[in-house]
Amino acid sequence: MTLKVGVIGTGMIGQDHIRRLTQVLSGAEVIAVSDIDGARAAAVAPEGAAVFATAGDLIRSETVEAVVICSWGPAHEEQLLDCIAAGKPVFCEKPLVTTAAAALRVMEAEVAFGRRLVQVGFMRRFDADYRRLKATLDSGTLGAPLMFHSTHRNAAVPEGLYTSDMPLNDTLVHDADISRWLLNDEVRGVEVRVPRRSRRGTELRDPVVVLLHMGSGVLVDVEISVNIAYGYDIRGEVSCEEGTASLPLRPATVIRDIHGVRQLVPADWRGRFIEAYDQEFREWIGAAARGTATGPSTWDGYAATLVADAALKAVESGELQPVRMRDRPSLYSTTLEAPPVTDVSGHALRSRRQQS
Ligand code: NAP
Q1: Is residue 92 part of a domain?
Q2: How far apart are CA 34 and CA 233, in angstroms?
Q3: Can you give the residue ranges of the GFO/IDH/MocA-like oxidoreductase domain (predicted)?
Q4: Beta-carbon-side half-sphere exposure of residue 196 (alpha carbons within 13 Å)
Q5: Atom of ligand 1 at shortest distance to CA of 13?
Q6: Both 109 and 136 in a single domain?
Q7: Mean per-residue pLDDT of the chain
Q8: Is this prediction's pTM over 0.85?
Q9: Is 177 in contact with 96 (CB distance < 8 Å)?
């Protein structure tokens, strides 16, 4: 059976996901699109897809079985609430929403509905390198994690659209989520330091250094540079009691020529995480076809939003800002678990939980 999908927001990532759903993956068909710019939606609509004037019309259409939200963050809350009211599984690009209060409203609606419907676009969890890194940590062979160094660099951000808060309320959510997932832990406090400002960033607070204090005492340092010119460079290294584990550079091909030895750097997120996005949607299609959602949840979106809120306060105060989460509803009890993965030699890596 083919899942009939409607896509809201047909900008950069909306178009990439439409391509993925129509040309790469099986099991889904984009039968409807909508964008605040109707001409843009019409221009990128797959053949035969309906173009809806509003997101609400698309969500309530009887032919649409599941929804993909790729509009900008401030529009997500209303669109998510409409999807939940219609009982339709929904994939929502990060950030889930832009305030903690909005995240709580979405959570309350989903909990009242009684079944998970929302998956948030934290695609790093579907990346094979991050999955191997997590499996290594969970196996316990390196002892307890002590520090995680996370680097998030963009070549540039779209002019005019990106505000000075966005490194903290739009970009940091990826590092916050992957830290929680890798370390099976919650963020309890946030500090932010702003070094000398890059002249390429003009109005932006760029770069920034964020320190996440995890519940276990692990410290996560995050470098966010959103105008670093040379490419999209995502790195991660975890220092543990008996060793370290780090992500490889991607793409991994090493070039040697008369200029020396080098690896290419992806231009943006589309190249670096192309397989992760594909896997993310493979898993989403499977769950949505069963009328539900797995993967990063509303709870995870809420947690990342609280970290972003705390970071915005911390940058103003210059002090450690606490992160206080509400109790976790039982609907979201298992979302920090990793799927089973194998190590490089193909052996299954067992988690500490499985070993004990
Ligand atoms: P974009 O190119 O600006 O596209 C967003 C599109 O949504 C635009 O066409 C915009 O129209 C439209 N839109 C805005 N408000 C809307 C509304 N209320 N209803 C319907 N359409 C609306 O931005 P993008 O880069 O694709 O990003 C979209 C979302 O994906 C953001 O939340 C972003 O953070 C996220 N994202 C995630 C990743 C990832 O790695 N997971 C990567 C990139 C982006 P106008 O241009 O006319 O406003």
Answers
A1: yes
A2: 32
A3: 130-245
A4: 3
A5: 26
A6: no
A7: 92
A8: yes
A9: no
Ligand 1 pocket, Cβ-based, cut-off 6 angstroms: 8-14, 34-37, 40, 55, 70-73, 75, 93-94, 121, 123, 170, 269
pLDDT classification of 114: cutoffs 50, 70, 90: very high
| Structural domain boundaries, residue 41 | 3-123+275-297
Question: Ligand 1: distance of its center to the CA of 76 in Å?
Answer: 10
What residue type is assigned to position 73 of the chain? G
Which range is least confidently modeled, 59-73, 136-150, 156-170, 327-341?
327-341
Cα separation, 237 vs 220, whole angstroms: 10
Count of C-beta atoms within a 10 Å radius of residue 272: 21
Interstrand relation of 233-240 and 243-246 (parallel, antiparallel or unpaired) = antiparallel
Are residues 258 and 168 located together in one domain of the fold? yes
Cα–Cα dist 112/106, whole Å = 10
Both structure tokens of 300:
């995870």
Does 140 lie in the same domain as 91?
no
Residues 287, 183, 125: CA angle, nearest 5 degrees: 30
Question: Residue 172 and residue 95: Cα distance in Å, rounded?
Answer: 10
Is the confidence at residue 51, as pLDDT, over 50?
A: yes
Q: Are residues 92 and 73 in the same domain?
A: yes
